[in-house]
Automatic annotation (TrEMBL):
One of its GO terms (cellular component) is cytoplasm. CDD domains: YjeQ_EngC. Its EC number is 3.6.1.-. The keyword Hydrolase applies. Monomer. Associates with 30S ribosomal subunit, binds 16S rRNA. It comes from the Bacteria. Residues 104-263 form the CP-type G domain. Keywords: Cytoplasm, GTP-binding, Hydrolase, Metal-binding, Nucleotide-binding, Ribosome biogenesis, RNA-binding, rRNA-binding, Zinc. Binds 1 zinc ion per subunit. Its cofactor is Zn(2+). This is Small ribosomal subunit biogenesis GTPase RsgA. GTP binds at residues 151-154, 205-213. Zn(2+) binds at residues 286, 291, 293, 299. It comes from Streptomyces sp. R21.
Amino acid sequence: MTSSAVFSALAPYGWDASWAEQFSPYDSEGLLAGRVLRVDRGQCDVVTVDGVLRADTAFVTPHDPLRVVCTGDWVAVEPGGNPRYVRTYLPRRTAFVRSTSSKRSEGQILAANVDHAVVAVSLALEVDLGRIERFLALAWESGAQPVVVLTKADLVPDAATLAHLVQDVETTAPGVPVLTVSSTAGEGLDVLAAVLAGGTSVLLGQSGAGKSTLANALLGEDVMVVQAARDVDGKGRHTTTTRNLLVLPGGGVLIDTPGLRGVGLWDAETGVGQVFSEIEELAAECRFQDCAHVAEPGCAVLAAVDSGGLPERRLDSYRKLLRENQRIVAKTDARVRAEIRRDWKRKGAEGRAAMEAKRGRWE
């Protein structure tokens, strides 16, 4: 098969010269290049120059859950056979990973080779800024550019309220585009489509956020099944059950995902720092390099809270996500566990010294 034919077939799915160069060793072996559209129980749908093929992932199923084949991967597929097998996948440019809800604290890869991570937030319910920060931390850590999309804007009663909500989210998401859309009214979709036209995007959010409706609006047809959210709490019913990669008519591809009830961090310290970039900048001005921003003298972060320049909610959320991320990393990294133990001992010694000093003054 000629390289021009491969480019013609796969370019709409994101194939480029760099992917072709990485694939060249497998091309010489007679394997087919393809992109994974969907994975389900060890089987995957792969788009190739020969069309969409069904392939088995048994050869690429290691014990590490972060190295399994996932939607968005570029893979090398056998040209024939029954069953047909995926032989390997190309090194990922980006990967969106969260921790699972299991007690083993394993990572789960949701999508690979993503350029934009679209966080869908429904305006039909009270906006949860902390959850947005959590999604954004994972998005930044993945290497993708986050985009927050406020859906169901037609349900907001007036323009002033909408502007206030957008401002709150923009403050929560520094450096992140915040767009408002109404899939039913068709408002804001052209702007979002233009943003997504340049690569691969993954659509994230809770059940009921309107992801499937948004995906259908961007696709221009009812590809994803849609169910109404419950009136009592606005939650959806997991309409989407697998991650599906779909070509957008205006360019680019979209990976739709099931609603995420739990969004656990997974080794996302850099991402947390990006979400709270204003706190990281203030921390550089603290008197002590290891300032915990709790009660230390000369803390620029606490001074900003006292002056009203930094919302206390932001600082609380920052601390919470850093603690959570540290716990996750500590379960798999002995060095981090040792550092945490040393920090506990240091704080314990400081506490005992303070108590002894108080006793001395009392006596």
